[in-house]
């Protein structure tokens, strides 16, 4: 598997085209600007590749596993903006705490889930095989489920999966002609 990380910085500057790099999107013509989603996916991919290069020893994307992705998400927690109360905090489980507390700011579960979705797509666009995708690993899914459940408890909100409502049958209304003739008599 030949996964080629783009040769750009973590801030997502323009990619330098070379013969070994695979373009992120081949569906849009080159004259159009990439969508917001495509730009975010490119920035996320660049950030993940930069993270792998900063490891000692540096890792290649092809050697990456679900455990490496979990460590990347833990690394990203330091840049989070969501207050997540510890179990020892007096405001643990309160949806609207009445006062500030020293609990850490973390990445929100929804942000992590969306990030993994974008990285999963980017991995396959860069030549990765779907069955070897580290962004779909069981360890990662378990980690995300634990983050979701803990953050829901910390906020005092239970997380329940949205269920589809069964379609209600619409009963046909009686014909209007019969009503008009009955009213005229």
TrEMBL record:
Keywords: Developmental protein, DNA-binding, Nucleus, Transcription, Transcription regulation. Residues 20-35 have a biased composition (Low complexity). Coiled coil: none annotated. GO terms for biological process: mRNA transcription; response to light stimulus. Residues 20-39, 155-185 are annotated as: Disordered. One of its GO terms (cellular component) is nucleus. It is found in: Nucleus. GO terms for molecular function: DNA binding. It holds the Pfam family ALOG_dom. Residues 36-163 form the ALOG domain. InterPro entries: ALOG, ALOG_dom. Its main location: nucleus. Belongs to the plant homeotic and developmental regulators ALOG protein family. This is Protein LIGHT-DEPENDENT SHORT HYPOCOTYLS 3. It comes from Hibiscus syriacus.
């Amino acid at each position: 598997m030949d996964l080629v990380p783009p040769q750009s910085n973590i801030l997502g500057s323009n990619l330098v085209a070379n013969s070994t790099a695979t373009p992120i999107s081949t569906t849009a013509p080159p004259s159009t600007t990439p969508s917001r989603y495509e730009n975010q996916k490119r920035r996320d991919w660049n950030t993940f590749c930069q993270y792998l290069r900063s490891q000692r020893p540096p890792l290649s994307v092809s050697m990456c596993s679900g455990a490496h992705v979990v460590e990347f998400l833990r690394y990203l927690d330091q840049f989070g903006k969501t207050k997540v109360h510890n179990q020892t905090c007096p405001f643990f489980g309160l949806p609207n705490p009445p006062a500030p507390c020293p609990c850490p700011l973390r990445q929100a579960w929804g942000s992590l889930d969306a990030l993994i979705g974008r990285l999963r797509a980017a991995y396959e666009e860069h030549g990765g095989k779907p069955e070897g995708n580290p962004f779909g690993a069981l360890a990662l899914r378990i980690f995300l489920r634990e983050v979701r459940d803990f953050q829901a408890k910390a906020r005092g909100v239970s997380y329940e999966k949205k269920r589809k409502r069964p379609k209600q049958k619409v009963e046909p209304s009686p014909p209007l002609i019969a009503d008009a003739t009955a009213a005229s008599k």
